[in-house]
# Entry
Amino acid sequence: MLKLYGIKKCSTVQRAIKYLEEAGVTIDQCIDYREETPSRQLLALALEETNGKPKKIINTSGQLYRDLGLKDKLDQLSSEEILDLLQDNGMLIKRPFITDGTKVTVGAKEDILDGAWIN
# Structure
């Protein structure tokens, strides 16, 4: 079962959905970040897959990132602190966040989507 977390009206999310659907991939559930964030376990998996580079899973172009002053603080936060931030603030998570429960991709780059979800 493939779950996509994001904001349905976001153009990046729409582009990823269209790309996957055109490739024959079914997205079983779309979940709005503002209502439910991915589990801490999935967020930790995403962070682990980036070799501890949080900017790869954080929406660095979002208003909340700027409001929290994370540009200057991010490198000083522990993994646990980063996970706390992401779990408490879904808008900080780069869109879309896609998972089947065992693997995770973040973002809409076609090479990432191809490698993970398109056979």
About this structure: The mean pLDDT is 94.
